[in-house]
Structures are given as structure tokens and as C-alpha cells.
Design a protein that fits this description.
The structure holds two protein chains of two kinds. Chain A is α/β, with parallel strands linked by helices. Chain A has four helices and eight strands; from the N terminus they run βαβαββαβββαβ. In chain A, helix 1 packs across helix 2. In chain B, helix 2 links the parallel strand 1 and strand 2. Chain B folds into two domains: 142 residues, Rossmann fold, CATH 3.40.50.1370; 156 residues, Aspartate/ornithine carbamoyltransferase (Rossmann fold, 3-Layer(aba) Sandwich). Chain B is α/β, with parallel strands linked by helices. In chain B, the strands form two sheets. In chain B, strands 7-6-5-8-9 form a five-stranded parallel sheet. In chain B, strands 2-1-3-4 form a four-stranded parallel sheet, with helices on both faces. Classes of the chains: A alpha/beta, B alpha/beta.
């Protein structure tokens, strides 16, 4: 198991992403951050705090569970549903920034786009991810990336966050062949 | 979980996971787009060999919100009324490719028979069998109680719930006793001795014959329908006497402690086990039980049908 990002690296990456989000959106007024549970949701709240301190105004932030829209539901045992919390101003006509921890096949993001479409029609959707590990299976790319990590398919990338795991770090390990 | 046949079969963990899933699915009814693509392409059969309004419509609404195809099938107007056996019916459903059968049947154990035999391969959901169980009703009742009195907790630890009336004929009461006690609630059955089943003393409940004295300690009062259609002998002298001793009226609603809720699985005999003004009082969550029923049944269908049904559910 290799640590590829330390707590300090994560904090630097997030603060850069926060600046980039502000820059590309000229202000945070018409922006809604939606984190994909569980770790993406915590990252979204961290980014919201950072953006609030940069812009000096509050940011709409919530969570979006994609489980019910996944295309691999039938391949696995039933999954527990996570919380979806759409902030008061909703998504209609706003810029939605989806936040996830690891961008891999792109299938979660496709599911998130479908889930979003049922809630309203955002004027624009962007994607921020802490790690981009490659191996896309769909034509999806991130607008804001914390770190690109080239991986082999046989490897597994794990993001740990203090809110859940007690520590901030990103590790890569070789999957035990199953 | 492959089937939902009885509350006795499910664990505390599974029950909580159904309630949590229902909490998330309930939010779908608040969004403008009330439909999810999750069960697209699955076929669900409503096989109702006994009359039902709420349960059948509720399961149908739940299945449709998850985009499943629903085939309704009731004894009236089908070959069941010509005397077709359960086996032949099941084989017909299998041939049509049903992924799940929601069955209500007058014979206790009919859903279990359907699940055990090799007549069909789909999931079986018990929507009420004879005087045995009605698990989805108990789950929606627990969901309603948790929503109002749970204060963010996952189970019903320490809550005091009274189930009043015709326990003898009530599959709702049976499922509720099992589920509510499994979730940590304390259940009191309040009924005339003639309307309590044989062996009730072995149930994990307190039994009371005096509604008024039990009343003030209760957090929730669940009234049961007096099932006149199942009564072939005299269980109480007359309707007026029953209402006086075991009916919920406005005086008894006033005696409840603040915050307590009034429930009824429906259909109600207004004027017999519950007066119209208590059924429509601010304490009553009877209408809400119906809308919660859709969310809970969506959760059941999701957990039974969304995943690879050949893998055992893990949590």
C-alpha cells in the first residue's frame, strides 16, 4: 500500500480546486455544489467552506445519491441508499458542480447526471474530483482535478477523510485477485 | 432477503435497512419527477385473492414509481374464481416472466408455499395471508412511528405502543408485535379476552383489558379493525358495548399524553372501533400511514429486486 497524497497534499489540492471553481464561475452566487456520498459529500462541504472564505458569501451545498440511477445495480447485491439533500435554491438554472472523491469509469457521474435531470435543469454542470485515476468507460471528463494518478486496473485507490476514516490520505494498493 | 414472507424471518438489521431505504425513497415523492428508472424492465404481479384497496394500490404505486411493469390480478375476474389452483396460477405467472409476485391470500401460509415450491422463481412478497402476517403493513407502521417519535434514532427503543381491538383475527397485529418488539418498543395489547388469540401469553407483550388505564402511558395507539367478515360467532355482546370499552373516542384522545399519535391500518369501521372525530383529529396519522406505505413498499421492492437476485444481501 502506497500513500500518494498526504493530509497536506489533500488540503492544498482542495484549496486550488476551490480557487479554480471561483475563477471559472465568476462568483459563487449562482452555483450549487453537490457531493456524491459518502466521501464526495464531505469533500463538497469542505470545498464550500473554502469557497465561502474566498468569496466572503455563502455557497449552496448538498449531496446527491446516485444509487437508484446506476447501471450496475443488477450486477451486485442491493446497495443501501445514501442521503440526497438538495439545498434550498435547488438546481434549476444554476451552475451545479458535482464533487466526487475518485473519477474512474465515469459511470457514477453518468448516474449523477441522470439523477440531476430528475431534480431540475441546471444551466451548466461541472465536475470536481480529488483523484482522476483514468480508465474511463464513458465520454466523461472532470473540470477540476486534485491530482491525476496513473493506475493499473488491478490497483485500488482509496481516499480516506478525517470525517469518516479519522485520517486524511490517499493510498493505492494492489487488489488481491478475487 | 429473497422474499418478504413474514416479520419473523427478518433481522433487526434488515428491518432498519428497509426503514432507512424508505426514508430516502420518501424524498422522491417531494420532487417534481416522481419516477425512478431503478426497476425498469422488471415485471411485478399483484396477485390478490382477497379484497384490498390500500395495499394493492400502494404496491402498484410503489412499483410504478420505480418504473417496474405491474400486472394486476385479482380473484374476481380471473380464473381463480373458476377454482384454478395456486400451483397453476403460479406456473402461469412464471411462464409470463414475473420477477416478483405480491400475494394476498385468505389462507395463512399461501405466500410461503409459493416461495418454497419450485413453481416459480421470482421473489414472493406477502401482502397479507389469512390471520398470519402482513409484513409490509407492520413496516409502514414502524416507519410512521419512527418518523414521529423516533427523534432521529434508527429503532424504536423504549417507545410504548398500544395495539387495541380485534387482535385475534389481525395479521397486522401479529406482524406489528413481532416488528415493534424487535425494534425495541414495548407493546401492550388491549382487547376483550375473546378477541385475543390462544397462546398470547407467550408473546413478548403486556396484556390489558382496560383501555382507559393503559391509555395515558402510550406513545402511539394503533386501533385495529373489527373484522366482522371473519367472525362466525359472537365475540362481544354488541357493537355499542364494544365501542364503549375498546373504541377510541374524543375523550380517550384527550387523555393521551401530548405528542402521542393515533394510528389505524384501515379500512376503518367509523363508529365501531374509532369515532369519526378521533380518526380525523390532529393526533391521527392515518392518512399519512397510507403515503408512508408507498415509500416503504418502494424500499421493499428496491431491496428485493434491484440487485442481482442471486446474491445474498450484504450490509
Amino acid at each position: 500500500m502506497n500513500t500518494v497524497l498526504s493530509a497536506q497534499d489533500i488540503s492544498r489540492a482542495l484549496s486550488r480546486i476551490a480557487h479554480e471553481i471561483c475563477e471559472s464561475n465568476t462568483g459563487s452566487q449562482s452555483m450549487t455544489l453537490l457531493g456524491i456520498p459518502t466521501r464526495g459529500a464531505h469533500l463538497a462541504f469542505r470545498l464550500a467552506t473554502l469557497i465561502e472564505s474566498i468569496e466572503g458569501s455563502s455557497v449552496q451545498v448538498g449531496t446527491l445519491d446516485t444509487t437508484l440511477f446506476r447501471d450496475d445495480l443488477r450486477l451486485k447485491a442491493p446497495r443501501a441508499l445514501m442521503a440526497t439533500k438538495i439545498p434550498p435554491l435547488g438546481v434549476q438554472g444554476r451552475t451545479v458542480v458535482l464533487v466526487d472523491d475518485v473519477l474512474f469509469s465515469g459511470r457514477t457521474i453518468r448516474a449523477a447526471l441522470d439523477a440531476l435531470g430528475d431534480i431540475g435543469r441546471p444551466s451548466r454542470v461541472q465536475l470536481a474530483t480529488l483523484i482522476d485515476r483514468g480508465h474511463r468507460e464513458l465520454p466523461i471528463r472532470a473540470d477540476f482535478v486534485g491530482k491525476n494518478i496513473p493506475t493499473a486496473l488491478s490497483q485500488s485507490v482509496r481516499v480516506s477523510l478525517t470525517e469518516i476514516d479519522g485520517v486524511d490520505e490517499v493510498t493505492i494498493s494492489d487488489l488481491v485477485s478475487s | 432477503m429473497k422474499h418478504l414472507l413474514s416479520i419473523a424471518d427478518i433481522t433487526h438489521l434488515e428491518a432498519v435497512s428497509i426503514l432507512n431505504t424508505a426514508t430516502e425513497l420518501a424524498k422522491v415523492s417531494d420532487t417534481p419527477m416522481k419516477k425512478l428508472p431503478t426497476l425498469r424492465g422488471r415485471t411485478i404481479v399483484n396477485l390478490f385473492a382477497e379484497d384490498s384497496t390500500r395495499t394493492r394500490i400502494s404496491f402498484e404505486a410503489a412499483a410504478k414509481r420505480l418504473s417496474a411493469d405491474v400486472i394486476n390480478f385479482s380473484s374476481k375476474g380471473s380464473s381463480l374464481s373458476k377454482g384454478e389452483s395456486l400451483k397453476d396460477t403460479a406456473q402461469t405467472l412464471q411462464a409470463m416472466g414475473a420477477d416478483a409476485v405480491i400475494i394476498r391470500h385468505g389462507a395463512s401460509g399461501a405466500p410461503a408455499r409459493l416461495a418454497e415450491c419450485q413453481w416459480m422463481s421470482g421473489a414472493v412478497i406477502n401482502a397479507g395471508d389469512g390471520t398470519h402476517e402482513h409484513p409490509s403493513q407492520a413496516l409502514l407502521d414502524a416507519f410512521t412511528i419512527r418518523k414521529h417519535l423516533g427523534h432521529g434514532r434508527e429503532d424504536l427503543e423504549g417507545l410504548r405502543i398500544g395495539i387495541v381491538g380485534d387482535v385475534l383475527h389481525s395479521r397486522v397485529a401479529r406482524s406489528n408485535v413481532l416488528l415493534l418488539t424487535k425494534l425495541g418498543a414495548h407493546v401492550t395489547l388491549i382487547a376483550p379476552p375473546t378477541l385475543l388469540p390462544v397462546g398470547v401469553e407467550s408473546w413478548p407483550v403486556t396484556i390489558s383489558y382496560d383501555f382507559d388505564s393503559a391509555l395515558e402511558s402510550l406513545d402511539a395507539v394503533m386501533m385495529l379493525r373489527v373484522q366482522l367478515e371473519r367472525m362466525n360467532e359472537l365475540f362481544f355482546p354488541n357493537a355499542r358495548e364494544y365501542s364503549r370499552y375498546f373504541g377510541l373516542n374524543s375523550a380517550r384522545v384527550k387523555a393521551l399524553h401530548p405528542g402521542a399519535i393515533v394510528m389505524h391500518p384501515g379500512p376503518m369501521n367509523r363508529g365501531l372501533e374509532i369515532t369519526a372525530d378521533s380518526a380525523d383529529s390532529a393526533r391521527s396519522v392515518i392518512v399519512e400511514q397510507v403515503s408512508n406505505g408507498v415509500s416503504v413498499r418502494m424500499a421493499i421492492l428496491y431491496l428485493l429486486l434491484a440487485g442481482d437476485t442471486s446474491i445474498k444481501a450484504g450490509n
